Each structure stands twice: as structure tokens, then as C-alpha cells.
Amino acid sequence: MNFEELIDKVKNIPYGRNANRYDFTLVLSENKGTCSSKHAFLKDFADKNEIKNVKLYIGIFKMNEVNTPKLGDLLSKNNINYIPEAHCYLKINQIPVDATTSDSFYDKIKHDILEEIEIIPNQVSDFKVAYHKAFLKKWIEETNQNNTFEEIWKIREQCISKLSE
């Protein structure tokens, strides 16, 4: 199986959190994965097979009703236009590649990306969460949100659960 075929295979694996967020190989054995585990798995594969120009990114985007229609009710019920959400994806020769699902989520959020950073595969777990939380805390302060960090994080978790349904 070449790298492009592996990307296609991963795109068609169902979305879901793995039993151990530190073990990307579970994407294949459990036949599910998130944006983090799927892209960390692919970047790790690329590195081990000396496939050049494959980079792993975290993008913080405005998760809203337009780019994530399933969340409209939940966000409006909480009087929130958007929540900054972390999404992982690859760039191969600077071209974004999103293997989260069979249709690229990146295409739906590319105009809503607030910030992106390049990371290495083992940063998709603890580092990604810490980076995301720090971004959220800064955003809450800068935009004078009516909710605390804990409230926003709880709403965000409800959003993620709704997307996993």
C-alpha cells in the first residue's frame, strides 16, 4: 500500500475517539480515529518511510453553525456564535490534506482558521489540549465572553459528542 492509498483508507475509517490517545496505531486496529489520531498516524508513517514534505498541523478555527451545521442548536442555545476549536490535518508539499472523513473538513473551515502551528505526532495528545485550552482562555478574555472557561469547555465537549453521533 502506498501513502496515497493509506490516506484514502484512513479517510474512510469512522470518526471516534480511540481507547488510548497516545497510541496512533489504534486507528487501524480499532477501525476509528479522530482528526488527531488519524493525522498523527499518517505523519508517523510518512516519517518512518522517509516520505518527504509531509507536515502535521493544528489549526484553531471558528467552529460555527456554517462550517459545522450539526451544532447550530447547541451554539445558539448557549448564545455563542462560534467556539475556537482545534483541528489536525496534514500539509503535503504545502497542500492541505484532511483525512478525518471521506470529504475534507479542512475545505469547510479553511476561511475560519484563526491560527495554525506545525507539530510532531506525539504532540496531538497533551500538547494539543494544552495549546487549545490556552488559546480558549485568551479568546474568552479578549472577546469578553459571558461564559467562564469551564462553561465554554463543557459546551465544546457537548459539541464534540454531538459530532460523534
Automatic annotation (TrEMBL):
The organism's place on the tree of life at top rank: Bacteria
Name listed for the protein in its UniProt record: Uncharacterized protein
Protein species of origin: Flavobacterium cheniae
